[in-house]
């Protein structure tokens, strides 16, 4: 009987608080009603009971809801600490040279060498899983009020890797929607998309202005 | 003799009546409880759709194309918003002729001056090339209509339950069976 009780208990032992409360209530009752009944059998009856307030379902439900509530609270707390987290990233982007400007299928395409250096280590907080860093060229044309072309990107998963310098040609095709590149001025913006371990994501950025395409195809 | 028979039949009728009333009340109670659970779930879902402006406010990541940022089984929370889509955002989009929506990052945006319409190009962080290969034939850009939502936050691992239940249907039946059993044996 006791073994059965133990098995049942270990199976349904989800909310010790309720169990302890129940024991506290049960023991005096046993003492009052019968002096011969030992403690263990009364528990076994208790464990097999399937109706009433203290069924397995009720306990499971209580434990699961409490666990979800606690998890939600922790997630919100993590987001809150991210909001008050202060950072001062330093970024520098330079255009080293243009290595081609041509027309391709009715659109302009440029090839450009960039010098990107940054220290983004202060952005990392305890809830940061990774930074997705990318540099986008941004410009306006007579047809489009806004153009954004990602030229280079990198995934940074550790704070130690957040200080970097990259001397690279554009990783992705630098192609306009139309033929507007010649002599056009554009901005280069570094964006860092902060991907958390949980909850809110956010984007930070720093812009650099005053870049200009060559005046002719070459 | 007749008196005994009538007394027995009255007793049976009474017992049956009490059993029936208990059962009926019990069944009705359970139906109402089930109805409340289902309708509140439906209400929460519809409210989420309304507030986020996205037809599916919560999606589960299925592929590895956004690793290590998003892993298989992560849950994404979407929000549509009225602001135009910008590079760097992670959007969920539908392609004509494809059943399953895709979660990828926006890498190019061209916004038309007159119409305000955006042309969007996406790419998975973990993929070598942009998504033109995934789009419909001869499709160069995504429009606003293709975008189902823009991700604002995520919860890790919680989507595994959904993945397991869609890919292993027998698990769904086991779960439903256990739940039904618990409902029957509990009061």
Automatic annotation (TrEMBL), chain A:
Q: Which InterPro entries match?
A: SPC3
The terms describing its cellular component in GO are: signal peptidase complex
Q: How does it sit in the membrane?
A: Single-pass type II membrane protein
Q: Which UniProt keywords apply?
A: Endoplasmic reticulum, Membrane, Signal-anchor, Transmembrane, Transmembrane helix
Q: Which residues are listed as membrane-spanning?
A: 56-80
Top-rank lineage group of the source organism: Eukaryota
Q: Its Gene Ontology biological processes?
A: protein targeting to ER; signal peptide processing
- Where is the protein found, in the record's own terms? Endoplasmic reticulum membrane
Pfam families given for it?
Answer: SPC22 (PF04573)
Q: Does the keyword Endoplasmic reticulum apply?
A: yes
Which family does the UniProt entry place this protein in?
Belongs to the SPCS3 family.
Name of the protein described by the UniProt record = Signal peptidase complex subunit 3
Name its species. Ceratopteris richardii (Triangle waterfern)
The beginning of the lineage is: Eukaryota, Viridiplantae, Streptophyta, Embryophyta, Tracheophyta
UniProtKB/TrEMBL annotation, chain B:
What Pfam families does the record point to? Answer: Peptidase_S24
What EC designation does it have?
3.4.21.89
Domain of life, per UniProt, equals: Eukaryota
- Keywords per UniProt: Endoplasmic reticulum, Hydrolase, Membrane, Protease, Signal-anchor, Transmembrane, Transmembrane helix
Checking CDD domains in the record gives: S26_SPase_I
Q: Which GO terms describe its molecular function?
A: serine-type endopeptidase activity; signal peptidase activity
Please state where this protein is localized: Endoplasmic reticulum membrane
Name the major location.
Answer: endoplasmic reticulum
Name all Peptidase S24/S26A/S26B/S26C domain ranges. Answer: 51-138
The membrane topology noted for this protein in its Swiss-Prot or TrEMBL record is: Single-pass type II membrane protein
User: What transmembrane ranges does the database entry give?
Assistant: 27-45, 170-186
Enzymatic class: hydrolase
- Function recorded in the entry: Catalytic component of the signal peptidase complex (SPC) which catalyzes the cleavage of N-terminal signal sequences from nascent proteins as they are translocated into the lumen of the endoplasmic reticulum. Specifically cleaves N-terminal signal peptides that contain a hydrophobic alpha-helix (h-region) shorter than 18-20 amino acids.
Question: Under which name does UniProt file this protein?
Answer: Signal peptidase complex catalytic subunit SEC11
């Amino acid at each position: 009987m006791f073994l059965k009780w133990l098995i049942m208990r270990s199976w349904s032992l989800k909310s010790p608080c309720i169990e302890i409360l129940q024991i506290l209530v049960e023991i005096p009752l046993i003492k009052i009603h019968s002096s011969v009944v030992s403690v263990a059998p009364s528990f076994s009856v208790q464990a097999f009971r399937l109706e009433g307030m203290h069924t397995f379902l009720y306990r499971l439900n209580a434990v699961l809801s409490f666990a979800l509530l606690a998890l939600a609270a922790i997630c919100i707390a993590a987001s809150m600490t991210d909001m008050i987290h202060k950072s001062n990233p330093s970024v520098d982007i330079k255009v080293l040279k243009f290595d081609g400007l041509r027309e391709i299928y009715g659109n302009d395409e440029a090839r450009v060498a960039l010098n990107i250096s940054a220290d983004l280590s202060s952005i990392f907080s305890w809830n940061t899983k990774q930074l997705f860093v990318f540099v986008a060229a941004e410009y306006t044309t007579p047809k489009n009020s806004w153009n954004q072309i990602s030229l280079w990107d990198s995934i940074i998963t550790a704070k130690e890797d957040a200080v970097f310098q990259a001397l690279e040609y554009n990783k992705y095709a630098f192609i306009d929607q139309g033929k507007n590149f010649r002599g056009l001025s554009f901005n280069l913006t570094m964006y860092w998309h902060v991907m958390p371990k949980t909850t809110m994501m956010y984007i930070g950025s720093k812009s650099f202005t005053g870049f200009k395409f060559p005046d002719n195809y070459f | 003799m007749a008196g005994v028979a009538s007394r027995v039949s009255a007793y049976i009728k009474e017992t049956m009546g009490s059993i029936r009333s208990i059962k009926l009340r019990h069944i009705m109670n359970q139906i109402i409880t089930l109805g409340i659970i289902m309708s509140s779930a439906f209400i929460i879902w519809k409210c989420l759709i309304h507030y986020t402006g996205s037809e599916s406010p919560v999606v589960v990541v299925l592929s590895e194309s956004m690793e290590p940022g998003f892993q298989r089984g992560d849950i994404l929370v979407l929000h549509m918003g009225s602001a135009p889509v910008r590079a760097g955002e992670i959007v969920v989009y539908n392609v004509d002729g494809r059943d399953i929506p895709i979660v990828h990052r926006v890498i190019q945006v061209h916004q038309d001056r007159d119409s305000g319409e955006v042309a969007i190009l996406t790419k998975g962080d973990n993929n070598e090339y942009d998504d033109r290969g995934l789009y419909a034939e001869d499709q160069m850009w995504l429009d606003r209509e293709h975008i189902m939502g823009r991700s604002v936050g995520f919860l890790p691992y919680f989507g595994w339950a959904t993945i397991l239940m869609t890919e292993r249907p027998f698990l769904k039946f086991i779960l439903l069976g256990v739940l039904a059993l618990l409902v029957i044996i509990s009061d």
